[in-house]
Amino acid sequence: MAGADSIISMYDEYYAGDTVHPKREIASVQSVSHIDTIIQGEAFERILDIGAGEGAVLDKLNKRRLGKSLAAVEISSSGIKAIKARKISNLESVEQFDGYHLPHADKSFDLGLAIHVVEHVEHERMFLAEAGRVCKKLYIEVPLEHTRRLDRAIRMSGPYGHINFYTILSFENLLKTSGLTVERLKVFPHDLAYEQHLAGRTKGWLKYKVRTEFLKILPKTAMRSIAYMAGALCSSH
Q1: Which of 65, 81, 107, 112 sits a CA distance of 20 to 30 A from 181?
Q2: Cross-referenced InterPro entries, in alphabetical order (predicted)?
């Protein structure tokens, strides 16, 4: 895959040290809460985290007993090392992949997770088709950063590897044109803890209230104006 080597080298040492750890721990609580909301009590025995980072989501899934067995694939060697260091009790395998080829058989997992991964992927549909090959269902979560202030989103998120920017409609279209059937789709504001981690106690609370209430009252205007997240549960063919 052209470009795969450069992507691997870009993220290889991303999870070394403690720079991204606090933010990802808070974000993982938020993401697992979103998964809980979307799956609506549906049970999944085997779960694969695709682009698992340093294992924060896997750790929360294990503690919540969401899935009897867990597995992970990650592009970054520092991420794999961090996942293994967590010693997650029901984690069966951790493997490195190139971003596009999963080392697993067709439909060998009940649920696949791609949480804040697709915005980093050059060939999104190729990635999602491969995820759908391996997993019966997928939970996919992305930031909705394609707002009126897209220039700011590109400037702020570009250094973190975001190359794709979505609206709720373009995200849904991506899923459908990747051969997936969207079962449930929901827009989420950031949690209070996440907002306060980024902006401080008082400013974070204000940002949380504005983002949450704006979405409730004027959802279309809110999503055109400020960034949210979208999560979707999809079935693969």
Answers
A1: 65
A2: SAM-dependent_MTases_sf
DSSP state letters, the chain = -TTHHHHHHHHTTTTSSSSSHHHHHHHHHHHHHHHHHHHTT---SEEEEET-TTSHHHHHHHHHT-SSEEEEEES-HHHHHHHHHH--TTEEEEEE--SS--SS-TT-EEEEEEES-GGG-SSHHHHHHHHHHHEEEEEEEEEE--STTHHHHHHHHGGGT------HHHHHHHHHTTTEEEEEEEEEPPPHHHHHHHH-HHHHHHHHHHHHHHHHH-HHHHHHHS-EEEEEEEEE-
Owner of token pair 């063919």: 237
Residue-range domain boundaries for the chain:
4-236
CATH class name, domain 4-236:
alpha beta
* pLDDT in the model for residue 118: 97
**What is the residue type of 206?**
L
